[in-house]
């Protein structure tokens, strides 16, 4: 599968490297400075590439959308049309200083991203555990990564990529249920294994 990562910071690099190891082709891009990726991608081998954000959509079967939250509109504009493609929203609504959350009123980060990609198949994922938690889980005991979205086939695709990265996908339902697992939801930053996750989700739903 061809995977394009928009905003290849810590999240994009961690998962992208794992997917390259599993045989996927991965294009890394960076909204602010593509040059910072060159040395990292050069170590990953022939299935890893550096692209400008503008070239990611044409390359990709799946787009991992992972810019800082304050840059989502800029990154989406650079990315351009993604009609019919799977777009994985990894964002959480942190402020630029990373000291707190942006006030979104009654909206959620996933809803804001979905508004930017109305013709895409948006799936929320790779957002509920930190890079450190995910990296540790890839080496030791896998933890749950939550999925939310309105298209079941798109969610199946993302679930497969999560499993390929050595983690456990868990589908909470349609995109509106991302409110449970993105910041500041009750499932955010908590680690769950397969045996405990169903009860935790039921409690979060109230």
Largest sheet: 8 strands, mixed
Radius of gyration: 16 Å
The coarse overall form would be: globular
CATH superfamily: NAD(P)-binding Rossmann-like Domain
Q: What is the rounded distance between the termini?
A: 38 Å
How do the strands of the widest beta sheet line up side by side? 3-2-1-4-5-6-7-8
SSE order, one letter for each helix or strand: EHEHEHEHEHEHEHEH
Q: Could you tell me the mean pLDDT?
A: 94
What is the third-level CATH name, the topology?
A: Rossmann fold
CATH architecture classification name: 3-Layer(aba) Sandwich
What features would you describe in this structure?
With 206 residues, this protein is of the alpha/beta class. The protein has one domain (2-205): Rossmann fold (3-Layer(aba) Sandwich). It is built from 8 helices and 8 strands; from the N terminus they run E-H-E-H-E-H-E-H-E-H-E-H-E-H-E-H. It has an 8-stranded mixed β-sheet, sandwiched between helices. The radius of gyration is 16 Å and the shape is globular. The model has no long low-confidence stretch (mean pLDDT 94).
SSE topology:
Layout: E1 2-6, H1 10-21, E2 25-29, H2 38-42, E3 48-50, H3 53-59, E4 62-65, H4 72-79, E5 86-89, H5 109-116, E6 121-124, H6 131-139, E7 144-149, H7 152-164, E8 168-173, H8 194-205
Parallel strand pairs: 1-2, 1-4, 2-3, 4-5, 5-6, 7-8
Antiparallel strand pairs: 6-7
Quick tags:
206 residues; alpha/beta; Rossmann fold; 8 helices; 18% strand; globular; NAD(P)-bd_dom_sf
Describe the structure in brief.
Pfam families: F420_oxidored. This protein is of the alpha/beta class and 206 residues long. The chain is 36% helix and 18% strand.
């Amino acid at each position: 599968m061809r995977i394009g990562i928009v905003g290849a910071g810590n999240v994009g690099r961690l998962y992208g490297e794992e997917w390259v190891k599993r045989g996927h082709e991965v294009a890394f891009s960076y909204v602010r400075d593509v040059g910072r990726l060159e040395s990292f991608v050069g170590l990953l081998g022939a299935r890893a590439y550096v692209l400008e954000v503008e070239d990611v959509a044409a390359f990709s079967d799946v787009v991992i959308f992972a810019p800082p939250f304050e840059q989502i509109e800029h990154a989406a504009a650079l990315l351009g049309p993604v009609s019919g493609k799977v777009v994985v929203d990894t964002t959480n609504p942190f402020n630029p200083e990373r000291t707190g959350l942006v006030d979104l009123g009654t909206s959620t980060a996933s809803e804001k991203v979905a508004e930017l990609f109305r013709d895409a198949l948006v799936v929320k994922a790779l957002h509920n555990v930190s890079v450190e938690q995910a990296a540790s889980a890839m080496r030791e005991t896998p933890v749950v990564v939550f999925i939310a979205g309105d298209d079941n086939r798109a969610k199946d695709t993302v679930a497969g990529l999560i499993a390929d990265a050595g983690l456990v996908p868990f589908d909470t339902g349609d995109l509106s249920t991302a409110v449970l697992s993105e910041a500041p939801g009750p499932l955010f930053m908590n680690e769950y294994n397969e045996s405990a996750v169903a009860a935790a989700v039921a409690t979060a739903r109230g």
